[in-house]
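hey can u check if this looks right to u? its 111 residues, i copy pasted from the old doc so theres a chance i mangled smth
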Amino acid sequence: MAEGSDTTPTAEQTVAGQTPNGLVAGIQSFAAGHGGAKAVIEYVGKRGARIVLVGEDGVWADQFAESTDVARLACAKAGVAVENEWERELMDQMRPSNDLWRSMARRTLAR
């Protein structure tokens, strides 16, 4: 690949222009499948930002974005409200799956 021919947008280009379509579509799809959703955005260093989506039915999932700005813009385009922090009501709404409970138990038993 010739130098300078990389077409991957940087975080600055993405925020100034558009968010990745797959990210917005993924957020919209989750919200539609779970009766709506709320998001909490967590900064994860060089990796970017983690968008934790909590559906109205208690199911949760996550997506990753290049930066917190891209994550906020993607949530806005998808029509999902962003919470400023993990509030008690939002955490009480989350319902971990049985698979998650099993994986947590294995980690505890392995110690």
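The chain has one domain: 11-109.
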